[in-house]
Each structure stands twice: as structure tokens, then as C-alpha cells.
Amino acid sequence: PTRRISGFKPTGPLQLGNYLGAIRPTVQGQGEETVVFVADLHALTVPHDPERLRDLTRQVAGLLLAAGVDPDRTVLYRQSDLPAHAELHYLLECSASYGEVHRMIQFKEKGGGSGTRLSLLTYPVLMAADILLHDITDVPVGRDQRQHVELTRDLALRFNERHGPVFTVPRAVHPQVAARVADLADPAAKMGKTNAATNGVLFLLDPPDVLRRKIMRAVTDAGTDVVYDPAGKPGVSNLLDLLATCTAQDPARIAADYTGYGRLKSDVADAVIALLEPIQQRYDDLGDADIEHVLARGAERAADHADATVRRVRAAMGLAGRA
Ligand code: TYM
């Protein structure tokens, strides 16, 4: 059977790329077994403020619920509530090599200075632990996380070869459109919740007028033609991707409907606002106690499967059994 997992790092407020690349595909897959978690341990890999981490963790969990994660069908929990993540992380570090982790693109982009937290280097191994704990088959993620899922596969296959069939080997799955939403102000960069300049980032909780202003100011490409050409015209193509994915159409086909950028942008703004307004309303209706209740129940439900995996790994590696 298919088992999916989706994780979100509370390092900033969720943005549209998170929704289109991962949240929506996960919500749509909820007919099958689904695990969703707030990856608060991952947020400790970069300088952080404890108070802000607590607030963002609650906000991310609330937005996941508002965006359609159904706590009756899906196990939704906070990573740090399950010690099994940290334990499996360490055990997997003993199968991973320095070289294969060091070459991860995200570390090359963000890490390297002598003040870099060691956990930023080993973060992909923690991500592998997150996935392998739950015997996941499919990991719906944006394109930026593909390399980490490949590493997870490599670690699982190697472990199974050495120690027998302990892990389920997962694969990454990406949406056809919007697997890498670009920053509106800098189409060469991916939209990200921690981007320094936020005028190109559409946050899920941005009010409609802010969303519209950011979209109307989006950087477009030289010329005035509206054509779908992601390599040659990344700015316009990103807008076409957004409109196509919000309205369930094909980006190359809708390009023909437009003769200039102005009307394209205002249609993108209408579509994004129509997509996000209901999520924002549901978010406003959620109380802190509701969110905390869901997370507590989720951690309880996730624990049995996770603990069973860790017991299997410990035994395979020659460690003593545990009561
Ligand atoms: P994070 O928190 O950076 O992003 C969460 C999810 O959103 C996707 N995403 C995007 N998709 C399309 N376009 C974008 N511009 C865009 N920006 C973000 C990400 O690909 C991701 O799917 N390491 C993960 C969190 C994590 C995780 C896991 C995910 C930890 N353990 C286990 C899945 C399974 C991360 O930093 O995602």
C-alpha cells in the first residue's frame, strides 16, 4: 500500500511554493495512509529564536489544518514530540558517509563557514530518518528536496543489503506543474520562506491586497510576448505555471490567451487570492488549544509505528533489545 509523508520546517511563515509543491499534493492523497509533521528539529540547524520557533511551529500546524490536512485520516504531529526521530538519526549516521552528505546541494549553498551548525551538515540524514521511521513509499516534495530523498533511498538500500530487509525504500514524487515555484522578484531563485527580500514571496497568510501588489510587480522577461518557455522566459513562465496550477489548466495552452503581461498578472492575482482566501478564513477560526490537541493526539498515534521501526533497526545493528 502507498504511504506518504510530508514535512515542513518552521523557519518562517509558509509560502505558496510549500502549498503547491507539497501541501496540496499531500492533502489530495489523503485517501491513502498519510503522515504529516512539523519539522521543528530541522529548524534548529540554523540560528533561531526559541520564542519565534514556538510561534512558527503552532502557525505551521494551524495552516496545515486550514489547508485541508484532516486529522481524522492523517497523522499530524510535531517532530520533537517523537524521540524516535533523534534515535534513528544517530543510527543512520552510522551508515552514512561524510562524503555523500557533504556533497548535498543545500549544504553547499547555505553552509560551509566555521560557525555553521554541525546539524546543518547532517540534516539530510535526519530527513532520511523521518521518512524511514514510517515505512514510507511516496514522498511528495518540491524539486528542491529531490536530492535528499535520493540520499534516503541510498541509505535504505545500503542498510538492507548489510543487515537484511529492514527499511521500505521510498521515492520522491513531484507535482507536474509548480514543482519549483520561483521567486516573483528573482525568477532564477526558488520562492522560499526565509528569502531575505520578501516582495517576491507569496506567504499563505498575506492579505489579498499584499498578494495582488506582489504579483502585479513580478519581474517579467525582455519583450512583451506571453510564451511558455521556462528556460528562456522564466519570469512569465512562472506566472503561467501559477495560473495553470491554480485553475487546473495547462501552462503552454493558456499562454495563447494573453497578448500582454498586465492582464496575465491580474488573472494570476485573482486565482491566487481565490485559492488562499478560504485557507486564511479557516486558519482564523482555529484556536491554539485545537491545534495543540491535534498535535498531541498525532504524536500518540505515530509513536507505535516509529518505535517498532527503531526496535527493528537496533536489533539488526546488534544493539541490545529494549523493553
Ligand atoms: P521546507 O520546509 O523547506 O519545504 C516544505 C515543502 O515545500 C516544498 N517547497 C516548494 N515546492 C515548490 N516550489 C517551491 N518554491 C518550494 N519551496 C518549498 C519543499 O520541497 C518541501 O516539500 N527538508 C524539508 C522538510 C522535511 C521533510 C522531511 C519533507 C524534513 N523531513 C521528510 C518530507 C519528508 C524542508 O526543508 O522542506
From TrEMBL:
Pfam families xref list: tRNA-synt_1b
Molecular function per GO: ATP binding; tryptophan-tRNA ligase activity
EC number: 6.1.1.2
Keywords, sorted A to Z: Aminoacyl-tRNA synthetase, ATP-binding, Ligase, Nucleotide-binding, Protein biosynthesis
Record's keyword annotation contains Chloroplast: no
InterPro entries: aa-tRNA-synth_Ic, Rossmann-like_a/b/a_fold, Trp-tRNA-ligase, Trp-tRNA_synthetase
GO BP annotations, alphabetical order: tryptophanyl-tRNA aminoacylation
A single Gene Ontology CC term: cytosol
PANTHER family: TRYPTOPHAN--TRNA LIGASE, MITOCHONDRIAL (PTHR43766)
UniProt similarity note: Belongs to the class-I aminoacyl-tRNA synthetase family.
Protein's name according to its UniProt entry: Tryptophan--tRNA ligase
Species this protein is from: Dactylosporangium matsuzakiense
Lineage: Bacteria, Bacillati, Actinomycetota, Actinomycetes, Micromonosporales
Gene that this polypeptide is encoded by: trpS1
